[in-house]
Protein 1
Amino acid sequence: MTSVIVPPTSPEGRSSGAGSAPGAATGRGPRRLTAVVGRQPLGIVFALPYAAFLAVVFAYPAGLAVWISFHRYFFAAPGAVVERPFVGLDNYVKVVTDPAVLRSFRNVLVFLVINVPLTVVLSLLLATALNGAIHGRTFLRVSFYVPYVSASVAVVAVWLFLFSSDGMVNQLLGPLAPDPSWLVNSTMAMPLIALFVTWKQLGFFILLYLAALQSVPKELYEAASMDGAGRYRSLTAVTIPGVRSATSLVVILAIITGGNLFTEPYLLTNGGGPDGASTSPVLVMYQRGIEQGNPDIASAIGVLLVVLVLGISLLSRRVVGSE
């Protein structure tokens, strides 16, 4: 007679059978919660105030602007109930057929063509020089940054003193001074504004490049020097590739600055003169929306401007990142 020996079942074995299903189901809940809130849920608590700020200050106005651009919208007294009918793309058609609006977009493209390359080249060269051991380095760093933190109205007053019809620059140039003068010349007004913005914003971009240069290993410069590379070769082979991410950021920020151009043409050329030669899309938005009471047209201009700036920024990032 053959006896069958049944091995004893361990406590672990008893719990690994049918009793394991509730445990597995119980474990899915914490994993799902971790996937939603992360490993440190307290971080969400600290991020909520800023998220609420973004929603109230940026997301809601942007969504409202898009909604207004598709409706016949006008200002009304508080509490008044008025119809604002849906008009589809009518506002956009008016925008793209308005010569003043089209000229403002051409002006800002001229601004970007001048401002962005100058900003990248000058800020990189000056940051590289200031990163080295030179006399008065701290003084020079502060000097370049002062225009950026100075009030635009005060700085504009200085440039008006320099470039007005009877300003210091024309007095120094004498018969070589342009006629009409700089800020009332339809050809030179926007390039001069681009130079002004480049000079004023330069300190901020120099700081960005200075921060990026700290991450470039000094061993690379030493190796380049041992291979016989001079300053120019070290700049092109070590510095520029080492700060490529900072260059991409500088280009995008410069493009956004050009897209938001308002104060400079409003103050320097008295609202975009002469004859709209220095108007910007944001300045036209102000004129159409506030001065003329057409917020629907202004919103359509704003939406197109955002699309244009976003497209140019993405294109520039692809170009800079692929080099």
Note: Confidence is low (pLDDT under 50) at residues 10-19.
Protein 2
Amino acid sequence: MAIGEVFAVFLEDDPLTTALPLPVLSSDRLAAVRAGSTYYVSALAFNEVAASCTYVVAASGGSTAATEALGAIQLEPAAAIATYTVTMPPNALNNQTFGVSTTQDITALTASPAAGQTVLGGAVGVLPADGGVAWRYRASNTTWYRVN
């Protein structure tokens, strides 16, 4: 990458797969780190990552592994459940947020890291009906930090 250039990314299946050089002084770009390289992603592309959500009909004792670039999981159990585990998205972007919400009470929700990651505040415990919890990812130390 030449000095004075950054990469803007167009969202396809992966927001960091296609890039063009653009001027450095662009206030509408967010830094995203993937596999040791820094990319400057348009706010639109980053927001589409953050806005992506998967809906899951959860059952007690079940689990869901988030896919890469997923922003949230909405759990929709038929009734209150005792336990559920969510695995964080792999290859997360720097400052990516990820949230879990539920329509019914979950007595013991656990957030597990994807390979090579750490989750702080992963033992959520009780997540009440219509409640949610979120984390923010820091790429430099591959750690998810609970933000609420």
Note: The longest helix spans residues 43-51.
